[in-house]
Amino acid sequence: NAGVTQTPKFQVLKTGQSMTLQCAQDMNHEYMSWYRQDPGMGLRLIHYSVGAGITDQGEVPNGYNVSRSTTEDFPLRLLSAAPSQTSVYFCASSYGRGPVEAFFGQGTRLTVV
Amino acid sequence: AQSVTQPDIHITVSEGASLELRCNYSYGATPYLFWYVQSPGQGLQLLLKYFSGDTLVQGIKGFEAEFKRSQSSFNLRKPSVHWSDAAEYFCAVDTGRRALTFGSGTRLQVQP
Questions:
Q1: In chain B, what percentage of residues exceed pLDDT 70?
Q2: Are B46 and A102 within 8 A, CB to CB?
């Protein structure tokens, strides 16, 4: 099992450029989510999904779009990158009832110059 | 809205010493509670979790955590720290939406 796969691992963007961070899981998990990690701030929830076709905003959604057309994939789109979006991005997936474990990808380090 | 506070940004302990990392949450009910660990340059690994039942929960790598409803706390403990425990530790809650709210993390340094 590959688990949760994020691509790319590293990316440098110029201000105003757009890009999509990819996240794919092969565990048939219902729930997927995106976080950004910044020094001293922990991980903050950007968007999340409880199933294909269903997404919702987290605490820091501005500047990011998501969609979930399949169970496996949950891409994160930056429409017009800004230096404030320089961060490490993590995707996670989980399933089931109760306090279930979230499985995390290895992260994408994004720098916007 | 829910929130998680980890008051200690950085803790240094000697190898073999005991460890306690603090976590307090703010939420109207008892959420699902978690501790995750992140080694440098790595993703996150679940140490342990809690929702109900025995308030002392055991996790991997010899860690345990105690839930105290009256204090809205979920502190992580380990009786004897190993050098390999040096990492960043995150407390997190899930209020049922199947996504996590994290604390800001505690970086653990272990002295030989």
A1: 100
A2: yes
